[in-house]
Amino acid sequence: MFEKWRFWATPSELKEAGVLGMNRRNFEIIAQHNKRRLYPLVDNKVLTKQLARQVGIQTPRLIGVIESQHQVRQFLSLVKDHKDFVIKPAQGSGGKGVLVIKSYTQNHFRTASQRVLRFSEVYQHISNILSGLYSLGGKYDVAVFEELVHFSTLFQDYSFQGIPDVRIIVYQGYPVLAMMRLATRESGGRANLHQGAVGVGIDIQTGKAIAAVQHNRPVRYHPDTGKDLFSLQVPFWREHLEIAAKGYDMTHLGYLGADIVLDRELGPMMLELNARPGLAIQIANQSGLRKALYRIDSLPEKSANYIDRVNTVLNLAVDKKFRELP
Q: 20 to 30 A Cα–Cα from 128, which one of 37, 99, 119, 314?
């Protein structure tokens, strides 16, 4: 499986593999299918949660929001009924500014990576969120407090400390490419590929692992747990695809990324949506995204119903004609 991918490839080889580049993604896909007026629907996490609730998508429950500096010192009263919680910027991206608190006292807070923070450090983190340090464009922001997802024990050997999530690319309402992002010691318990997390390509029709990479290089085993990544199978796969397809219905963004987590009690839930999903998912799948998009463009007609769109994806045969790009 790994032989067809090398660390370096020529432009002609990338084109032959159907790899979608940054410029083509920005000008031919995002610019054509994502109206800028719709971006706030996914850039603002509070608004995204509200829209998700309207279309029946389950998300981590909102605990509360801190909007101004004078509220920061009272943040403990906001979470007093919760033994763990997550703090994140409403308009952040790429996992920046997300702080996961697994346990705490009045003065000390233990993070997902087992780091212990003082009250003053958490206070400063919230203040930094409000100042726009982690937000898109550096705009003033609000701090969102939400319940922590308790990830399924099915994945406990596939991820190091952090919560694994599934990223699904949705094109014109159809899920087209998927990967699972697994935290490592190097990534500090975060499922961020740029920080050293592992990306596992997931077959869009079966939910089974088909490839895996770390730092864009093929791997077979998790670097910290030693688990065989190719044994990974995402349960409730249809439910994952339906959540992703509904993301299109709630935003009308023609090209988006849906991040989904599996809670051990509540099942699959949407973590967030992204109007500018990255392209590393191609490396994780060892498959170019242009091919996947072309398959959808080649459909004789598009469905307005998310269930029909998921059925189409699950039943779409790998026909040779879809491998040939125009």
A: 37
The closest of 258, 259, 255 to 292, measured between CA atoms, is 255
The order of strands in the sheet holding 85-89 is 62-66, 143-146, 85-89, 99-104, 108-111, 116-118
Which ranges of 7-118 does DSSP label H, i.e. alpha helix?
11-16, 22-24, 31-33, 40-43, 45-54, 75-78
- Summarize pLDDT for 80-127 with one digit per residue, the tens: 999 999 999 999 877 789 999 999 999 999 998 789 999 999 999 999
- What gap in Å lies between CA 125 and CA 109, rounded to an integer? 12
Segment 70-88, tens digit of pLDDT: 999 999 999 999 999 999 9
Q: What is the pLDDT of residue 325?
A: 43
Q: Report the candidate in 197, 203, 304 with the shortest Cα–Cα distance to residue 249.
A: 304
Per the structure block, which two tokens stand in for 315? 């039943």
The pLDDT tens digits for 153-177 are: 889 899 988 789 999 999 999 999 9
The gap from C-alpha 88 to its chain's centroid, in whole angstroms, comes to 15
Q: Which domains does the chain have, with CATH numbers?
A: 6-41+152-323 (3.30.470.20), 61-146 (3.30.1490)
Cα distances (angstroms) measured from residue 98 to each of 60, 134, 140, 204 = 14, 9, 16, 28
Name 42's Cβ contacts closer than 8 Å, sequence gap at least 6: 48, 251, 253, 256, 272, 273, 274, 275
The pair of structure tokens assigned to 239 is: 């439910």
| Distance in angstroms (rounded) separating the CA atoms of residues 109 and 119 | 7
Report the predicted TM-score, pTM, of the whole model to 2 decimal places. Answer: 0.89
87 and 79 in contact (C-beta within 8 Å)? no
